[in-house]
Write a structure and sequence with these properties.
Layout lengths: L13 E7 L3 H16 L5 E8 L3 H11 L3 E3 L2 H6 L5 E4 L6 H10 L3 E5 L6 H15 L5 E4 L6 H11 L6 E9 L16 H4 L3 H17 L3 E9 L4 E3 L19 E3 L5 E8 L4 E7 L8 E8 L2 E6 L5 E6 L10 E4 L22 H16 L7 H19 L5 E2 L3
Parallel strand pairs: 1-2, 1-4, 2-3, 4-5, 5-6, 7-12
Antiparallel strand pairs: 7-13, 8-11, 8-17, 9-10, 11-12, 13-14, 14-15, 15-16
């Protein structure tokens, strides 16, 4: 799609967006909603109607900074607003199910950040509510934004076209280092009752979804290890978005870390292809390092988030004399999403995944077709995470993923 005609803005029907949560993910989603209609020609015009958070002053400041029309301190009030057609959930996982089910029951479309929920039971309830709401024309989607990179979308199309042939191996790592300092405080991301799990849900959910998306098939079973390296941390003076906090050194009180710091597991796809996964927030020097490689009978693909405008592809059907991995610079207008952006060679960044996420959801809502990834897709990921936890608790016993 090309650049939108700004003169059509007055005649394009609005889609009022209400967002619950306003920290790191709230800012990223705000960027997506604020930008999408200025880049893509859309049948509906996203309007940033209202944002919600418990701290009235902080949420008002966020609304002013990011262009939201109103600020609420009760998510129920936000759902009840007549100018909100779609509810975007960017809160910790312990509130996803309650907010999503209520929003769908109120006739709103829903976008929910990953992981879909903290438990399989919650994810099942959300998926059932989504299925019921779909019968009334209400759409729901879970926010696995790494699907929306042009390079990963291109990788998916190459796999779907059969360029790799029968899949043999998938290996994925997602490594960060923001927890290596034992003085880092006990934010909500380190408490099971709020986050559900640690690196497993935070990072592992992303790579499980991305692996299944690129492979085009679900995982069948897992064998896992998890570990918590620092078991007690100082309590924060003031809660933040979970990736940072204030004043750990000045606080002598501490609390127990109740989630994993790292998860390592092998897995098998339904087709028999083998996979390995590693997720850690203790990998010193790795800030946001997501790497995935797929090996098939006819070729291989490799992607590195730290080089997100590139895709490595090896065609194993070529003569060995000149075969090998080649770099595809994913910046051409005929690559996914890129016909609306910059001239070839001008790369995109992390924030653009949220613009593309908003685009895809708006098109699905306007077209009356189920968006992807669906809540059912999010439930499948939740079942994989539950199997990982069960396997780790049973000394790495191979554990089938529930169907």
């Amino acid at each position: 799609m090309g650049q939108p005609d700004q003169g059509d803005e007055a005649t394009t029907p609005p889609l009022g967006v209400g967002m619950v949560g306003y920290a790191f993910m709230g800012a990223a989603h705000s960027q997506g909603w604020r930008t999408v209609g200025r880049v893509f020609d859309l049948p509906l015009r996203p309007v940033l109607a209202a944002v919600c958070g418990r701290d009235a002053g902080a949420v008002r400041a966020m609304a002013d900074r990011h262009g939201w029309g109103a600020a609420e301190t009760d998510w129920r009030a936000l759902i009840a607003r007549d100018d909100v057609d779609l509810v975007d959930i960017c809160t910790p996982g312990d509130s996803h199910a309650e907010i999503a089910v209520a929003a769908l029951a109120a006739g709103k479309h829903v976008l929910c950040e990953k992981p879909l929920a903290n438990t399989v039971a919650e994810a099942e309830a959300m998926t059932a509510a989504a299925a019921e709401a779909a019968g009334r024309g209400r759409m729901s989607m879970v926010g696995f934004n790494y699907r929306r990179l042009p390079a990963t979308a291109l990788a998916r199309s190459l796999v779907a076209e059969g360029r790799l042939g029968r899949l043999r191996h998938v290996r994925v790592t997602y490594l960060q280092d923001w927890l290596t300092d034992p003085r880092f405080p006990l934010t909500w991301r380190l408490r099971k009752e709020r986050a559900g799990s640690g690196a497993l849900g935070d990072l592992g959910a992303h790579i499980v979804d991305l692996a299944q998306y690129l492979a085009g098939e679900p995982l069948d079973g897992v064998s896992a290890l998890t570990e918590t390296f620092v078991r007690r941390r100082p309590l924060p003076e003031r809660e933040s978005g979970g990736l940072s906090a204030t004043g750990p050194a000045a606080n002598s009180r501490s609390g127990a870390v109740t989630v994993d710091d790292a998860a390592l597991f092998t897995a098998r796809f339904a087709s028999g292809a083998l996979a390995s996964f590693e997720a850690s927030r203790f990998a010193a020097g790795r800030k946001n390092s997501l790497r995935i490689e797929l090996n098939g009978e006819r070729g291989s693909l490799a992607f590195d988030l730290e080089r997100l405008n590139e895709l490595a592809f090896h065609d194993h059907t070529e003569p060995a004399a000149h075969a090998g991995f080649r770099r595809i610079q994913v910046t051409e207008p005929d690559h996914p999403y890129l016909d609306a952006w910059w001239p070839p060679g001008h790369g995109l960044g992390y924030e653009h995944t949220f613009v593309h996420q908003a685009r895809d959801l708006v098109l699905a809502v306007a077209g009356g077709r189920p968006p992807e990834p669906s809540f059912a897709d999010g439930l499948q990921v939740q079942r994989v995470l539950a199997a990982v936890e069960e396997s780790a608790a049973k000394n790495s016993t191979y554990t089938p993923v529930a169907v």
